[in-house]
Write the structure tokens for this entry.
Amino acid sequence: MIFLGFAFLFYETFNMMKPILPGYPGDAFFPRLAVGYTLIIAALILLRGILLPRFAAAPGEPSHVSVHWLEFLSVAALVLVYAELLPPVGFELTTLGFMLILLVPRFAVQHGLVHSVVKAVALTIPTIIILYGVFALLLGIHLPLLFLPRYIL
């Protein structure tokens, strides 16, 4: 389903405004690039998930592909909540909360709760700064910022 959704998004990029200036890639360039790479990676993951279990199964034994639906649906719900909270709360706090929700349970399996929160925050803050630098400063994409400056210089 996700693969088909990304294929539809790729198709929709062709309905975006055409470039006005010669040599300018146009509004659809970055979305088409991101969705195209995502489609390639999704196809590789899909093929790996279909082909590898068949090769690993013993002859006469059915191959099993397990899908963790609860995990998948919870991450999909988090992405929707992230998209809804981004404008009113701001990029920094929304990304911090989103990444903490995803990282703390993963780290809590190996470490204690306090150590996993500290480790998640230590990874989240540089990630926010890198995303801010790439998207807001270099690419000039408007992000709903709360603390970070919109422009430097």
